[in-house]
Design a protein that fits this description.
The chain has one domain. Helix content is 76%, strand content 0%. The chain is built from nine helices and no strands. One of its GO terms (molecular function) is very-long-chain (3R)-3-hydroxyacyl-CoA dehydratase activity. It is found in: Endoplasmic reticulum membrane; Membrane.
Length: 239
């Protein structure tokens, strides 16, 4: 799922005492590496498009770096757990693992969906979002945050979030017939554990969960945008 960290954590971070020098250095390196990684993905997409002259099947050109850097985001959960980043472990874990799930348990596991245009839709949204987000964190840690990056972080989500969610839902939907036919990851009875699991039904539940979650997170970000950027925009109008 399109990853939008709770914006109030960004604001609250400024009011709290930041991480120590060693932790700050580590976080700067981590965020620089992640920014570079997603830039590699962006460049890979553009180069593949220019070489092929078509956007169909571009996923294959960035499959490996996408898996690597999206999985690398799992470290963010650890950052919250040990307290060097003042965000919720639960919220961060949910956001990160939902995207790791879509990367590995859907797109990787159901190869038939990899050529779907919907995959490119969410990959593009993720890529732009992460380049902005990790750049935002890097400059914030260095106490030199350009307004343009701040503005982009609290503005681009207006388009990128619906775009990413649409791509994710369409990709899961495209995977359903394959999962139902093959029984992928499903466990049927009888078995020695007396346990059953229907992955097909689970994916449907995942899709349904978007209904209450998407509006809440989206409008929360809109409120945060007004809180973070509103006073600056209001001042500009007065000028």
């Amino acid at each position: 799922m399109l990853q939008l960290k709770a914006a109030h954590s960004d604001v609250a971070a400024k009011k709290k005492k930041g991480p120590g020098a060693l932790a700050t250095a580590y976080l700067v390196i981590y965020n620089v590496v992640m920014t570079a990684g997603w830039l590699v993905i962006a460049v890979g997409l553009v180069r593949a498009y220019l070489a092929r002259g078509s956007y169909h099947g571009l996923y294959y050109s960035i499959e490996k770096p996408l898996k690597f850097f999206q999985t690398g985001a799992v470290l963010e959960i650890l950052h919250c757990a040990v307290g060097i980043v003042p965000s919720s472990v639960v919220l961060t874990g949910f956001q990160v693992m939902s995207r790791v799930f879509l990367t590995w348990a859907v797109t990787h596991s159901v190869r038939e969906v990899q050529s779907e245009d919907s995959v490119l839709l969410f990959v593009t949204a993720w890529t732009v979002t992460e380049i902005i987000r990790y750049s935002f964190y890097t400059f914030s840690l260095l106490n030199h945050l350009p307004y343009l990056i701040k503005w982009a972080r609290y503005t681009f989500f207006l388009v990128l979030y619906p775009m990413g969610v649409s791509g994710e839902l369409l990709t899961i939907y495209a995977a359903l017939p394959v999962v139902q036919k093959t029984g992928l990851y499903s466990v049927t009875l009888p078995n020695k554990y007396n346990f059953s699991f229907d992955y097909y039904s689970f994916l449907i539940l995942v899709m349904v969960s978007y209904i209450p979650l998407f509006p809440q997170l989206y409008f929360h970000m809109i409120r945060q945008r007004k809180k973070v950027l509103g006073h600056i925009e209001d001042y500009s109008k007065v000028e």
